[in-house]
Write a structure and sequence with these properties.
The complex is a heterodimer of chains A (159) and B (411).
Chain A lengths: L2 E3 L6 H4 L10 H6 L8 H5 L5 E4 L11 H8 L4 E4 L4 H10 L3 E3 L12 E4 L4 E4 L4 E4 L5 H9 L2 H7 L4
Parallel strand pairs in A: 1-2, 2-3, 3-4
Antiparallel strand pairs in A: 5-6, 6-7
Helix pairs in contact in A: 6-7
Chain B lengths: L4 H9 L10 E5 L2 E5 L3 H11 L9 E4 L9 H16 L5 E2 L4 H8 L6 E4 L13 E4 L2 H10 L1 E5 L3 E7 L8 H12 L8 E5 L1 H5 L2 H9 L8 E3 L4 H7 L16 E6 L6 E3 L7 E3 L10 E5 H4 L2 H11 L9 E5 L3 H9 L2 H7 L3 E2 L20 E4 L15 E4 L2 H10 L10
Classes of the chains: A alpha/beta (159), B alpha/beta (411).
């Protein structure tokens, strides 16, 4: 799957500018992902593609529209050196897989990358190399395994 | 081993005698807030869960991000949330101010745990509460259960000492800190502000400090409550203090008397420079307001600079009190009248143009200086508009000059 490479501190205004988020329609949101920051993204992204970014991905606003838009655009996972905390929770809650990996600088934009969602092993097929993501904390893994917060709350008997 | 305020509040709310950073706890929440921009997805989340809110009295809904509705789409979202408020019998529904200001004025007590579907929910930590921003699904979960999971954060101590020189304010202090540590300098951590500067600062200034904690990645900003806090709130609450041997991951010593007026330059909040290095930058719009700097104290500072003078030609000056209470207070004191006479425009309490949806959107190539907390590309309109962040004094003085100026020549 194609890697879409981004830098450090990609904020939620770059992912989903506030002027475009007066909606909860996921299809509409999928079309506006990075609409001004990288207009070709929503046009060319294919189901299963991966976002690869630096530090503090998703900083700024708490708007859940940002991970919703990324997921609705077809992205199968976001790989970054670190995530801003609200974005991190939001993505886990809505079932957008995230992977933390220090070595993402070795991946270039356009590389073909495959992630093993079970083991966190990342294979860059273009460069024929293997990277490893840090495992998520156990508590968070449980939410991921249930497919998001709503199912987690149900299965744990909170609701 | 001693504990910090944040650790004590979260231990108390999760009924544990002790907690350590890294522990995951499930805490009871005292207030769950969402606004017109985030409530629609939270409402959908709650419908998916299929439960009623756990306690209507503890839910607060505020329309501030685009109120009154500037478009049919916005009106439709308002309608959806209004229906939810009616159906769930939520008594705490407001349309007259920025959510964080409303919470501080009407609800928050020291020692509370507050979750809000807005990143700047860290603001409320200024009155000794644990208060943090979450997304809509987390808020839906908290609305249904009255609980939320938290990882106990490591704390950073920012020990602020000294008195700032005339023309330098809390906004300059927090911008300076963010410039030092960077946009992820406090990622996942509690930012605790201590020291004689903080003790002497007004609650309004303390709110400005905590408001921007998220701009360095922090989970929460927090300041120990005191007599001043109680007088401001008119509520008792439970005051927690950090132990003398509390563990901080890092401690920063900051002498505020060495800080001059600061400006965050486009396009990131941590791109902070002394105002002297950007003096002369032409502006098209000046905005005083928001959850960062829309309180009476801020409007008073601006009024003193603007009174009897006229803003520069071709500059729009927008002033938006952060709540109706502030609107009436600053009107009663005659400040708003002076601002209007100087050429300023007053809009209804709310977020105003900070999120670029109404009341002062920017065109390509335009420049705005604002008291708000974010200057990202596209934040206030066209992605090629530029936003500088500064104190109310710097913004007011720049509105008079038509370009960014050092406010020390105006106060």
């Amino acid at each position: 799957m194609r890697a879409w490479k981004f830098g450090n501190d990609v904020n939620t205004d770059l992912i989903t500018p506030g002027r475009y988020t007066i909606t909860t329609d996921k299809t509409k949101l999928g079309k506006i992902a990075f609409i001004e920051h990288r207009p070709e993204f929503a046009r060319e992204v294919k189901a299963g593609d991966i976002i690869v970014a630096g530090e503090n991905f998703g900083c700024g606003s708490s708007r859940e529209h940002a991970p919703v838009a990324i997921k609705a655009a077809g992205v199968s996972a976001v790989l970054a050196k670190s995530f801003a905390r609200i974005f991190f929770r939001n993505a886990i809650n809505i079932g957008l897989p995230l992977f933390v990996c220090e070595e993402v600088d070795r991946i270039d934009d356009g590389d073909l990358v495959e992630i093993n969602f079970e083991t966190g092993q990342i294979r860059d097929k273009t460069k024929d190399m293997v990277l490893k993501a840090k495992p998520l904390p156990k508590f968070i893994q449980k939410i991921v395994e249930k497919g998001g917060l709503v199912n987690f709350l149900r299965s744990e008997g909170y609701v | 081993m001693g504990l910090t305020i944040t650790e004590k509040i979260l231990a108390n709310a999760s009924r544990k005698s002790e907690v350590a950073s890294g522990d995951v706890v499930i805490a009871d929440v005292d207030i769950v807030m969402a606004h017109d921009s985030t409530a629609p997805l939270a409402v959908e989340g709650l419908y998916k869960i299929g439960k009623k809110v756990f306690d209507p009295d503890k839910i607060v809904i505020v329309f501030d991000h685009f109120f009154p509705a500037p478009s049919v789409d916005a009106a439709r979202l308002h309608q959806k949330v209004r229906n939810f408020v009616t159906e769930q019998k939520i008594p705490n529904f407001f349309t007259d101010g920025v959510c964080h200001q409303i919470l501080v004025e009407k609800f928050v007590s020291p020692g509370n745990v507050i979750v809000g579907a807005d990143s700047h929910t860290c603001t409320e930590g200024a009155v000794g509460a644990f208060s943090t921003g979450l997304g809509s699904t987390d808020i839906a979960g908290a609305m249904a259960t009255g609980k939320c999971w938290f990882k106990i954060p490591e704390s950073l101590e920012f020990n602020l000492s000294g008195s700032p020189e005339k023309g330098v304010y809390a906004k300059d202090v927090i911008l300076n800190i963010i410039g030092q540590v960077g946009a992820d300098g406090a990622l996942y951590k509690a930012a605790e502000f201590t020291g004689d500067y903080v003790k002497n600062a007004s609650v309004s200034s303390r709110l400005t400090l905590c408001n921007m904690a998220v701009e360095m990645g922090a989970k929460n900003g927090i300041i120990e409550a005191d007599e001043k806090t109680r007088n401001f709130l008119g509520r008792e609450g439970k005051i927690f203090e950090s132990d003398k041997d509390a563990v901080y991951e890092d401690e920063y010593e900051i002498q505020v008397d060495t800080i001059g007026p600061q400006v965050a330059c486009p396009p990131t909040v941590d791109n902070v420079k002394p105002v002297t290095s950007v003096e002369g930058e032409k502006i098209d719009q000046a905005y005083i307001g928001t959850c960062t700097n829309g309180r009476s104290e801020d409007i008073e500072i601006a009024t003193k600079i603007l009174k009897g003078k006229r803003i520069a030609e071709n500059v729009r000056l927008l002033v938006i009190p952060a709540s109706t209470k502030i609107y009436l207070d600053t009107f009663g004191k005659g400040y708003l009248q002076e601002i209007i006479k100087s050429g300023g425009i007053i809009c209804n309490p709310g977020c105003g143009p900070c999120v670029g949806r109404h009341e002062g959107v920017l065109a390509e190539g335009e420049t705005c200086i604002s008291t708000q907390n974010r200057n990202f590309s596209g934040r206030m309109g066209h992605p090629k508009a530029e936003i500088y962040l500064a104190s109310p004094a710097t913004v007011a003085a720049s509105a008079l000059a038509g370009e960014i100026v050092d406010p020390r020549g105006y106060v």
